[in-house]
Amino acid sequence: MATKKKSGRRKTRARKKQPDRFLQVLLASIFLIGFLVASLTLLTLVQRPSLRSERPEDHAPEAKQSVADPGGQQRPLLKAVQLKLERALWRQGISFTEMDISRQGQVTHYSLPTVFPGEAWYEKLARDLEQESASLETRLEDSPDYRVEIAFSGKPLFLLSFRQPAKKAVAMRPKAYIAIIVDDLGRDLHALRDLLGIDLDLTVAVMPEEPHTRETAEKAHRAGREVLVHMPMEPESYPYNNPGPGALLLGQDIEEIKGRVAAMFRKVPHAVGGNNHMGSRFTQYPEGMRAVLEVMKDGGWFFVDSRTSSRSIAYKEARRASVPAATRDIFLDNNQDVDAIARQLRETVKLARAGRKVIAICHPYPATVRALQQEALFLRQQDVEVVPVSRLLRK
User: Fold this and answer.
1) 386 sits in which H/E element
2) I need a labelling partner for 20 at 20 to 30 A (CA). Which of 7, 257, 308, 351 fits?
3) Where are the domains of the chain?
4) Are 261 and 296 in contact (CB under 8 A)?
5) Strand order in the sheet with 100-104
6) Highest mean pLDDT: which of 105-119, 239-253, 369-383?
């Protein structure tokens, strides 16, 4: 009996402790919830200013500032513009050792001791810069000195000032002469228009059997350019390479050759001479060349040997027949690349200075036209003169 009573008292004490434990858990939960609510509230108050700074309007001043700040987002664009600008000056033959480069605020100023390269150079530069960004603007001022300003969204970035260099006393030297013959004309009037717009006394060689043969010769003559007949003759690679209709071939008899030469000059008005188109085989053929030169002597025309073969006897036969003649010294555009053609033009100047007279031949390729436009001012500034090819003949 005593054992049962002790067991009953223990059960009663255990039930009395349960309300105290429940109250402790409840109070701990309330405290934890309160702590979390207070922490979230405090965190919200701390973060609120930084959230406001993320609004788009708060970034607008930074975007505007980066346009004027060369160290900001415009740095890659500035480098690209400067590279194209300095490359354009280098191609024009302007030495970096002679120019004065300075910073005026956010503007890089180039003071250039040379004359303005011309409208064609400026327009090409403007087109090249437009490819970098539509926001780039190029402006040209021509009074009192030529100035080119390059701006981004109205804010100037670069300024180029051109001026005449101080004249230096130099010893007079005989002037060297260059003739530049443009072959293969008569097919494309657009190319002819561009060539006639270049301020150089180019000589125009017109094919006799092309769609625009007569019109090409007439336009060139009215523009004051010397006109030649570009005479198609048989090449070593014939018939794989065909020189075209009306060409002079080894299989023709002497009378047919003479008749074809006379017909060529009838089809090209204002022609004062001729040069061979292809003809690497025909210009090695003495009988054929003698027939050609007999007709040209009777017509008062001169002959220029294009030297499409190192074995050509055309110039020697012309001298023997007392026909005024000359030979080609350099081809300008075997490599149809603007920079390569520009280098050939400068090599032509060196040859002229060394030998006084040089004949260069080129073609109406787009790259050739661009190179001639680009280098025209350089050629006019040298101690050489570009003249009609008739000025360089030997009798």
Assistant:
1) strand 384-386
2) 7
3) 72-162, 176-392
4) yes
5) 100-104, 107-112, 155-162, 147-152, 136-141
6) 239-253
